[in-house]
Design brief:
homodimer, about 200 residues, alpha/beta, Helicase, Ruva Protein, domain 3, Dna Topoisomerase Vi A Subunit, Chain: A, domain 2, 2 domains, 8 helices, 7 strands
Chain lengths: ~200, ~200
């Protein structure tokens, strides 16, 4: 294929095209926008990418994103550490925090069991969750995986592992629309779902 | 506003949010994607931004984008330099080149006259176009500005300046887009297509 754009621009377009949900035309539009930024702004953008990538790691306890050893929730002593809310993704933590009604702790699995995509329990942070429940004083585990087939299966799988440990396991109420994505639920729906949680 | 994301991530999301047509949710999705890139890929992305920004400048002759003094079209001696196609944006050059049927040269105005947006003739590369016509042997200037109010006004303005210089000025044909549906063509386009009809 012949390349009509000058090389550094073509490379930048290519980079944007690799982003999820960004097509050829949008990638071109974004690249041209970057060209029109001030030099400082362009540098800031580039640094933000490298910085985010270099500095962010997983919290040693809950596997949430953090730039320190522990995330800001695990560092916070006023949070109720005896309740763990299990989510698939760090974005779900952000969504739940935005309800302003949850003051316990989290555990981020970083995915859901999905045999079709080759993701089994071993690729998720399930072992680490079990270790927390064995070593900390945990009263309740709230399964807040997505209301999808994979999320459900993951919740069921984990709850079966947790039952023998004598911990109460609950599931978010179906205030959240079935087949939806936790990340996109609105705050009110999410708080309803938290309030209506039931034992599994 | 309370920030629920860890700072380097929040900063990256903010950077993506500044891009045109990228909302909060999309910015978050893109930032998380970047986090999951390999370190090398993230660096490559960052470098592509800085590189494109630093290396790309305007061609000394036609104001198209280039990383050298002259763009690849102006450097190409097999192109017909006696015909200049005037466009608003470097992306229009790419679009016309893709037809594979245009072998002359270009002149990029970098915008269109738009009093509402405070863009007058002096902010465009019109003076440079006039200089080219005075100093080079130009037979024809094709006005290929957009078929919008601003593009039309710009084409009219420039053609008035060019007429006294004794150069032939043409305008891209208006009509129904190939592969389109007559039913969905707007009235103005249809009447232009009727006016511009040719014998078969």
């Amino acid at each position: 294929m012949m390349e009509y754009n000058v090389l550094p621009l073509a490379k930048l377009i290519e980079q944007f095209e690799r982003l999820p949900g960004i097509g050829k035309k949008t990638a071109q539009r974004l690249a041209y926008f970057v060209l029109q930024l001030s030099t400082d702004d362009a540098k800031e953008f580039a640094e933000a990418i490298v910085n985010a990538h270099d500095k962010i790691k997983y919290c040693k306890i809950c596997k949430n994103l953090t730039d320190q050893d522990l995330c800001y929730i695990c560092r916070n002593n006023s949070r109720d550490k005896s309740i763990i809310c299990v989510v698939e993704d760090p974005r779900d933590v952000v969504a739940l925090e935005k309800t302003g009604e949850f003051f316990a702790s989290y555990h981020v699995l970083h995915g859901a069991i999905s045999p079709l995509n080759g993701i089994g329990p071993d690729q998720l942070y399930i072992k680490e969750l079990l270790n927390r429940i064995r070593s900390e004083e945990i009263k309740e585990v709230i399964m807040a995986t997505n209301p999808t087939v994979e999320g459900e299966a993951t919740a069921m799988y984990i709850s079966k592992l947790l039952k023998p440990l004598g911990v109460k396991v609950t599931r978010l109420a179906y205030g959240i629309p079935v087949g939806g994505d936790l990340e996109y639920a609105d705050e009110v729906t999410l708080s309803r779902a938290l309030l209506g949680r039931s034992e599994i």
